[in-house]
Amino acid sequence: xxxxxxxxAMCCSSGLCGPSIDPVLVKMNDxxxxxxxxxxxxxxxxxxxxxxxxxxxxxxxxxxxxxxKKILPITIVNGEVFRTVEYPSYENLCKTLNIEPMKxxxxxxxxxx
Length: 113
Hints:
The protein is α+β, with helices and mostly antiparallel strands. The chain contains 4 helices and 4 strands; from the N terminus they run E-H-E-H-H-E-E-H. The chain has a 4-stranded mixed beta sheet with strand order 2-1-3-4.
């Protein structure tokens, strides 16, 4: 089980940097942490910090060439494009990977109001 997430250019993937907290990134970061606890191999690539990774993956490079940066984020599950433009939910990833979502021990998200 392998997930690759190709993020748009940003200062960090946690959602906790910059002038304001990004709740979407916080949720995705929590999902990544929970899935790693479930022995899912996850790699995240940031366009600003790892542009070569975007070119090294032919599928990602082709999507970027065809649609531009607006296609990001791109989530690939087991070598297949799973989702583009938005991040998938933790529950959706679990369903796709055929694993049970964690009930206890799941990282706690910050609640942003």
